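Following up on my earlier thread - several people asked me to post the actual chain instead of describing it. Fair enough. Here it is, all 512 residues.
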Amino acid sequence: MGCQIITLKVAVGYSEESLKKMIAGKVRISNFSYRIESKSLDARNKSRIHWVMRIAIISDEIKGEETLRPEPLHIPYRKRHSHIVITGSGPAGFFCAYVLQQAGFNTTLIERGSEVLKRNRSILNFERNGVFDPKNNYAFGEGGAGTFSDGKLTSRSKHISKERQFILERYIAAGAPEEIAYLAHPHLGTDNLKKIVKNLRIDYERLGGKMLFETMLEDIIIKNGKVTGAVTSAGVLPVDALFIAPGHSAYETYRMLMRRGVAFRTKNFAIGSRMEHPQEIINLAQWGKVKLSGVKAAEYRLTSPGDGRHQVYSFCMCPGGTVVPATAYAGLNIVNGMSYYKRDGRFANAACVAGIHPDELAGKEVTPEEALDQLEKLEQYFYQHANSYMAPACSIRDFIEGRNHGSGFETSYPLGIKPAPLWEMLPAEVVQAMRAGLVDFTGKMKGFEGGNLIGLESKTSSPIQVIREPNGLCAGFENLYLIGEGSGYAGGIISSAADGVKAGMGVLGKEQ
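Reply from S.P.:
Thanks for posting it. Predicted structure:
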């Protein structure tokens, strides 16, 4: 049995039968099976949009073998007596716990929020009735912030091929579509993710892992640079090692760690607002037509040098998606994006953010805790504009020109829009850069100026970063790890999950 890799240009809307005919014509054999290795959309020429596919052909008629897949991640098992506690059930925390449990450790994964179905009910109640639940919202609860998102599985992180393959395989086993293994821009959608995180948890518990919901990490007990206990809302858990995967919304966890001597530094991050357009505008700009057979909805990724000092870029683009109220705490107003697997909503949204350093925002050098304080004040300010979770908003055109034309809004945001001069609410340095960036964006995509800007987008990245060893170990500690987005070293589902996997594997490496 041999294997040959071929590349094909395939029309959108193709059928499985037509693809088999193309393969047969290319390799000139009749008895074969095939596996799609990669698939990406080429829309550079709008009159000839097509898929570019790399396909592995397997047949007795082929001599030799080619493969594109890396060696699988090897997790050696032996029964271990160490008890490891992992906090936060987002991608980093969950996959760290999963790897350690599979390796034979006794692990307990604690989550401050509830299991995903209860979390979902709380979010629906928030959107329908404005009742905010501090345990269950778009940031906290089973699966972390990623559960209620577009579920993008792309990552720019390097040297994580084994970890990525392991993560995708676990997602597929938990019910994800098999296409995530080969699509250039795979996504899961919130509807799939709600099922997937539950199935992952069931598999983790089947391995012997213990899951504690509605259990918050409140403090840690340290003796001579070693954590001996995790103080939680359910009592003290003794630990041989503690992994903290808080995401970057858990401000009180950050502050607790700072009080306990964990070292952080400030770093560049990004803030701005969320852009929203009718999806048809984006489809027309990208494809030259309203619909494209076999493709869900058009995406975009835009970058600009901004004002020359602060780069501006789109982030977390959600085709056919929804703008959502993403605050983790009462009295703050933050937005984010979400979409379902089919991406068939009326609107497209994406963050428009400018990169900046906390020192520049403050006009002085700030400590990591002061960086959190100033960001929290900005999030409070956006809440105070309407004294509610209504989102301040304006048109892109008004933002660029700095004046309000009094235009109305159609939006997917569930809690309502309140017209506002966002150019007066965001920091001046960010506004200057965003204006230049939005002018660039409108020149790159026809009709782009017809969209709106909604709310404050402040969670694309963290303004602080823990000082840690390459394996995630916090500097100065023997057994305390900070991983995932909350560490300041990862962003997005795949890179966060890979950070968790690597941290777990690092513990195994220390045993060698």
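The radius of gyration is 24 Å. That should answer part of your original question.
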